[in-house]
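Before the break, one more example. Copy the sequence into your notebook; we will annotate it together after we see the structure.
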Amino acid sequence: VELVQDWTSNRQTLKRAMNRLQTGLFTRFNDALYLAAKEQLGKVKGRKAVIVLTDGIDSGRGSVTPDRAFRSLVEEEVPVYAVSKTRIQGRADRDRLEFYLNSSSSAVNQRQIDGLKLSLEQLNESENYLKRIAEETGGRIFLPESFDDLSDAYQQVADELRSQYLIFYTPTNPNHDGGYRAVRVRVKKPGFRAATRFGYYPK
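Here is what the structure looks like once it is written out:
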């Protein structure tokens, strides 16, 4: 995992850093979440968030487990806004799968079919993982159906970050024992619900 650009308010600097990004063969998604929470956002006071464009699939070549990555986000009170590519990739995989299913039977075609079915299973699992991370940290998941929908998803993220409220309370348990504390915020008006993190670790 490489930090391409540290904190900056300069848009041109940020744009140049984004243009330097390159794709790779393996994704250490959990490592990236952990490092973002612990090394970057853990020292930030006030509102903060992780916004990530991803399919949520980790290559398994990193050192951080999904549970450790999730806990780091909760410990540092970082909501995750996941713009998921799972629906986009899933549609492409289903189109390819239909093509091979309708093609002549061969060993090569069967390998493609098996690979695409496995890919669709992984996408479904990773989408559920992203939903869990987003919802339980107080963020939100976005599931665009095409790359043309990405700008709308990012606009929704920006709008939501500008219209948040902070609610404080005093816990009845004063012990800082490192145990997880569940939190539920309920809205009285029918048909509405509060998007909040599910709990925290006392510091």
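The mean pLDDT is 90. The first strand starts at residue 50 and ends at 54. Try to locate both features in your own notes.
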